[in-house]
Automatic annotation (TrEMBL):
Annotated protein name in UniProt: D-2-hydroxyacid dehydrogenase
NCBIfam families: PRK08410.1
Pfam families, alphabetized: 2-Hacid_dh, 2-Hacid_dh_C
UniProt domain D-isomer specific 2-hydroxyacid dehydrogenase NAD-binding: residue ranges: 104-284
Domain called D-isomer specific 2-hydroxyacid dehydrogenase catalytic: residue spans: 19-309
Classification via Gene3D superfamilies: NAD(P)-binding Rossmann-like Domain
Organism of origin: Campylobacter helveticus
PROSITE patterns: D_2_HYDROXYACID_DH_2 (PS00670)
Family to which the UniProt record says this protein belongs: Belongs to the D-isomer specific 2-hydroxyacid dehydrogenase family.
Keywords from the UniProt entry: NAD, Oxidoreductase
Cross-referenced PANTHER family: D-ISOMER SPECIFIC 2-HYDROXYACID DEHYDROGENASE CATALYTIC DOMAIN-CONTAINING PROTEIN-RELATED, D-ISOMER SPECIFIC 2-HYDROXYACID DEHYDROGENASE FAMILY PROTEIN (AFU_ORTHOLOGUE AFUA_1G13630)
GO MF annotation list: NAD binding; oxidoreductase activity, acting on the CH-OH group of donors, NAD or NADP as acceptor
Length: 310
């Protein structure tokens, strides 16, 4: 059997040596579009994260199995793969704890003013202080805040549980309309945006969530509200976000953008009040523990296919 991993760089240097036990295993750190078919020549199994396996690739290779090293399979022509009897296996639930933790890291960075005060101290301001503390920026408790969650799936529910433990009042908006969870108040998107102190997005990108939050929705946010997106880029219109950030006083924490890596000259790089914006490069999922779990589950997916053909 020949197994080819096309973008191992997206796995954070994880040890992939265990895949050698199934046959010939070849790994490339990255693969440009024009090299995909060539590198999959003679391969039975493709292992990919973000490399696109479209109909053209599937037509010109002889794959039997595609191992997606993530949950989303939007980089794969799944329906066409079914027509060609190519099995597609993804991994779900491997990064829930990591994404939840990053959600609160972004949230507390604003509530506790950690970025501001880290710079304040390192610039020597504490050395100049006449008292032992400082009130240039005021900290704020999560306790008593209204926390609106957009997308109450596995990750959203865990965020809701932890936020409630801190004393927040949790409500949610179901992007599919099908989610009804009696544990929390279900409200409209407009009410959530207007009334919540903290809003966190944990939804997939689809026809219902694309540009879900654009200029009109952003202008509904409360003064000093915190908006966090660890779901998918494209849910928030980034051009509109950059514009409204310069017009209003609210805070935004992003781990995902519509185009990744971030485009040069992105409008968010030019916002006036940079203290109101935190951006991390799609790392919420990528704790050491999550990466280890991910690789193990991909291994188990391959093992199951080898042993049971499914």
């Amino acid at each position: 059997m020949k197994i080819v991993c096309l973008d191992s760089a997206t796995l954070g240097g994880a040890d992939l040596s265990q895949f050698n036990e199934f046959g010939e295993f070849i790994s490339y750190e990255t693969t440009p579009k024009d090299k995909v078919v060539e590198r999959l020549k003679g391969a039975d199994v493709a292992m990919v994260n973000k490399v696109v396996l479209d109909e053209n690739v599937l037509q010109n290779t002889n794959l039997k199995l595609i191992l997606e090293t993530a949950t989303g399979v939007n980089n794969i022509a799944v329906e066409y793969a079914k027509e060609k009897n190519i099995i597609v296996k993804n991994v779900a639930g491997y990064s829930t704890k990591s994404v939840v933790q990053h959600t609160f890291a972004l949230m507390f960075a604003f509530l506790n003013q950690t970025t501001f005060y880290n710079g304040w101290v390192k610039n020597g301001k504490w050395c100049e202080s006449e008292i032992f503390t400082d009130f240039t920026q005021m900290l704020s408790d999560l306790n008593g805040k209204k926390h609106g969650i957009i997308g109450l799936g596995t990750i959203g529910k865990e965020v809701a549980r932890i936020s409630s433990a801190f004393g927040s009042k949790v409500c949610y908006y179901s992007t599919s309309g099908a989610n009804n969870d009696a544990s929390y108040e279900k409200i409209s998107l407009e009410e959530l945006l207007k009334t919540c102190d903290i809003i966190s997005i944990h939804a997939p990108l689809n026809e219902k969530t694309k540009n879900l939050i654009s200029y009109k929705e952003l202008t509904l946010l409360k003064d000093e509200a915190i908006l966090i997106n660890v779901g998918r880029g494209g849910i928030i219109n980034e051009q509109d976000l950059a514009k409204v950030l310069d017009e209003r006083n609210f805070r935004v924490g992003l781990d995902v953008l519509e185009n990744e890596p971030m485009l040069k000259n992105h409008p968010l790089l030019s916002v006036k009040n940079k203290n109101n914006l935190l951006i991390t490069p799609h790392i919420a999922w990528a704790s050491k523990e999550s990466l280890k779990t991910l690789v193990q589950k991909v291994y188990e997916n391959l093992k199951e296919w080898v042993e049971n053909g499914k």
